[in-house]
Amino acid sequence: MTVLLSTRNLGRSFAGLRAVHEVDFDLPAGQIRALIGPNGAGKTTLVSLLIGRLAPSEGQVFFDGQDITKLPAHKRVALGMAYTFQITSVFGDLPVAENVALAARRRLGHNPDAVQAQVDAALVRVGLAGMGKQLASDLSYGHQRLLEVAMGIVQAPRLLILDEPTQGLSDAEIDAFKSLIRDLSLETTILLIEHNMNVVMEVADQITVLNFGEVLAEGSPDDIRADAQVQAAYLGTGHA
């Protein structure tokens, strides 16, 4: 199986504190990989290193075999990476549809018909059909997260990184989101950072567990559920 995203000896320190340490990580193309761990485990820092928002103190990041360690975030997007943030980053003073259109134009250019078709399809897929004319700032927090997912979808990414996408969603919306993730996995590779363990266990093909900035365990949902170290460090605590 072709590895799409990988890291070798990846690390980042802040004033001597090791937030991420010697992480070796391989994500095969077409997989849904969940990244979990306790608060402060280094998940957000690791994702920031993967997408180019932070530079590593050590190690390398590879995308489809290319060393992208020194590439800025926008060039990683151009290679086919898309991501949502743990804190919403939508344009609140623009309508929902225009937020998605801005993302679509990165790939399609100024082709109004093609852009509109992609916007409409993405809003339907994430459950926001009929909300296109609302200001993004008027959406609930959970719906803003779904808007971010729509903005990722229209870029037709090779890798979609979703950071806490179910936060603020109702139970029914979470069920719909799980179906969406399975559907999207037929088109793209997914890295899911998620605190909702029911979502993780139901949709992930493989799970990577971080603890104190290091990889504690990797395996299938069944493997992770049965791992005593993971139980002690994470699953038994009830925290993300």
How would you describe this structure to a colleague?
The chain is an alpha/beta fold and 240 residues long. The protein folds into 2 domains: 157 residues, P-loop containing nucleotide triphosphate hydrolases (Rossmann fold); 61 residues. Helices cover 38% and strands 26% of the residues. It contains 9 helices and 10 strands. A 6-stranded mixed beta sheet has the order 6-7-8-3-9-10, with helices on both faces. A 4-stranded antiparallel beta sheet has the order 2-1-4-5, with helices on one face. The radius of gyration is 18 Å and the shape is globular. The two termini are 30 Å apart. The mean pLDDT is 92.
Task: List strands and helices in order, with pairings.
Blueprint: E1 3-14, E2 17-28, E3 32-36, H1 43-51, E4 58-63, E5 66-67, H2 73-79, E6 81-83, H3 96-108, H4 112-126, H5 141-153, E7 159-163, H6 171-184, E8 189-193, H7 197-203, E9 206-211, E10 214-219, H8 221-226, H9 228-235
Parallel strand pairs: 3-8, 3-9, 6-7, 7-8
Antiparallel strand pairs: 1-2, 1-4, 4-5, 9-10
Helix pairs in contact: 3-4, 3-5, 4-5
